[in-house]
Task: structure prediction
Amino acid sequence: MNFSQVTDLYDNNDGKFTAKIQIYTSDTESQGESILYEPKDEAWGNEIGYDNYGTATAIIKKARLLNKDTYQIIDYSATR
Result:
């Protein structure tokens, strides 16, 4: 199972943000799911069984959809 976390988020001062993303792979689906929402430095241990898989950069912007604030990815590039 592959999963990713945003490691840095920068305001581009033009209504857009740049997100730096780390992509991981886990040896089992349940191990990956157990840490998806925990910051790496606080919750992950070597026993989790994850490996670095690659990185990505995304450009996102704030949007309003169905009367709710959200974000939209407008550009995404990944490298392994």
About this structure: The chain has one domain: 2-79. Residues 2-79 form one domain. The longest strand covers residues 50-65.
